[in-house]
């Protein structure tokens, strides 16, 4: 039997889950596993999809791109899976991409990224640069000034995101006064030379695209140096409630993140989502933008699967394009033109409780513009 073909069988629908539950990226990717699993559980509690339950086949690539590649191939070839929910870093996505394209699998990717990519084998549910970088740049220049210092982890996403930020600044009359990269396994002491340089250059804003455990060490080192976020905040696209909890809310307080979702959004849909998440994973656990995207993309998948009644990517993908779901962030949908999600754009400031106070948000969904052609930047309004 071809497991991707329509059939009247009661056999479960098997899907892949490929996020790191160990290694230096586990701090955020483990939460993406949680978001995926809670959505699968919700769907199964309602009877599954067309009477068949969803069953996740989970691998831990341990923050290693070589394992992402190996497990993606195993999932498709040996486990005969044709939809994979996975990847946080762009380097892991790019490691998996040739495999899913060659073997014709669908990768559901729930992480903000640098844009400038399109694959018919990927459904992108994280934010593209026009849905976060553009609004963040404008906000920071208006509130703090035009001199930015860029710090990132040394791989494709931070370098490309910093390139985008540099171009956005240039168009608005701003400037980059310094730019540094650290290893993905950077320690707390590795940030001392960076912060010494920041002391010398006196920028108005620090823009961070540091990821994983290194995010925690950056903010802790910043606090060690005695900087004040009221005057010189770290602004980020990659610092969520998960990293704030790990560094300590007292360390994260006052810093800024642009995201489609924050745990404290005041809506009944989000309140129910947060309540269920805490009941499932612990009262001390918080949702975040990566959890939420991992969660809603499974529901989008399930709606497409209900219509297609097949896991065959050639049948399933057209059903996914244009689909919509009332997510915790608000209504979202997949833009059929580019396989990216239409999302909300928001800016928040971390508070003493480890959550984000909402400062600005878009008045409606922001269409994706992954190649920054100029359309769909959206307008932010005070929260």
How does this model look, in words?
This protein is an alpha/beta fold. The chain has two domains: 13-127 and 266-342, Rossmann fold (3-Layer(aba) Sandwich), CATH 3.40.50.2300; 130-265 and 345-382, Response regulator (Rossmann fold), CATH 3.40.50.2300. It has helices at 26-45, 65-77, 90-102, 133-143, 156-171, 192-201, 213-224, 241-247, 249-252, 268-281, 289-308, 313-320, and strands spanning 13-18, 54-59, 83-86, 106-109, 122-124, 147-153, 175-182, 205-209, 234-236, 256-259, 324-327, 330-334, 341-342, 346-350, 356-362, 380-382. The chain has an eight-stranded mixed β-sheet with strand order 7-6-8-9-10-14-15-16, sandwiched between helices. Strands 2-1-3-4-5 form a five-stranded parallel β-sheet, with helices on both faces. The chain has a three-stranded antiparallel β-sheet with strand order 11-12-13, with helices on one face. Helix 1 packs parallel to helix 11 (289-308). The radius of gyration is 20 Å and the shape is globular. Mean pLDDT is 95; it is low at 1-7 and 375-380.
């Amino acid at each position: 039997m071809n497991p991707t073909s329509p059939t009247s069988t009661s056999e479960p629908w098997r899907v892949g889950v490929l996020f790191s539950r160990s290694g230096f990226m586990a701090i955020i990717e483990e939460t993406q596993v949680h978001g995926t699993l809670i959505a699968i559980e919700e769907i199964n509690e309602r009877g599954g999809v067309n009477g068949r339950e969803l069953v996740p086949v989970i691998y831990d690539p341990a923050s290693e791109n070589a394992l992402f590649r190996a497990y993606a191939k195993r999932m498709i070839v040996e486990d005969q899976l044709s939809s994979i929910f996975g990847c946080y870093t762009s380097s892991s996505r790019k490691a998996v991409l040739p495999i899913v394209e060659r073997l014709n699998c669908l990768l559901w990717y729930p992480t903000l990224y640098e844009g400038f990519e399109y694959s018919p084998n990927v459904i992108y549910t994280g934010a593209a640069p026009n849905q976060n970088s553009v609004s963040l740049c404008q906000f920071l220049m208006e509130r703090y000034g035009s001199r930015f210092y860029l710090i990132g982890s040394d791989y494709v996403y931070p370098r490309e995101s910093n390139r985008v930020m540099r171009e956005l600044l240039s168009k608005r009359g701003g400037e980059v006064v310094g730019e540094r990269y650290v290893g993905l396994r950077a320690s707390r002491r590795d940030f001392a030379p960076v912060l010494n340089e920041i002391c010398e250059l006196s920028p108005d804003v620090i823009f961070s695209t540091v990821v994983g455990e290194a995010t925690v060490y950056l903010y802790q080192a910043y606090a060690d140096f005695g900087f004040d976020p009221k005057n010189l905040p770290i602004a980020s696209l990659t610092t969520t409630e998960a990293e704030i909890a790990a560094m300590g809310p007292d360390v994260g307080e006052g810093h800024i993140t642009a995201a489609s979702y924050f745990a404290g959004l005041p809506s009944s849909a989000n309140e129910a989502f947060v309540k269920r998440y805490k009941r499932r994973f612990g009262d001390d656990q918080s949702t975040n933008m990566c959890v939420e995207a991992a969660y809603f993309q499974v529901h989008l998948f399930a709606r497409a699967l209900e219509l297609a009644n097949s896991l065959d990517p050639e049948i399933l993908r057209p059903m996914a394009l244009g689909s919509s779901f009332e997510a915790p962030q608000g209504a979202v949908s997949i833009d059929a033109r580019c396989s990216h999600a239409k999302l909300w754009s928001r800016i928040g400031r971390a508070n003493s409780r480890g959550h984000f106070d909402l400062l600005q948000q878009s008045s409606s969904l922001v269409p994706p513009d992954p190649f920054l052609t100029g359309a769909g930047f959206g307008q932010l309004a005070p929260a």
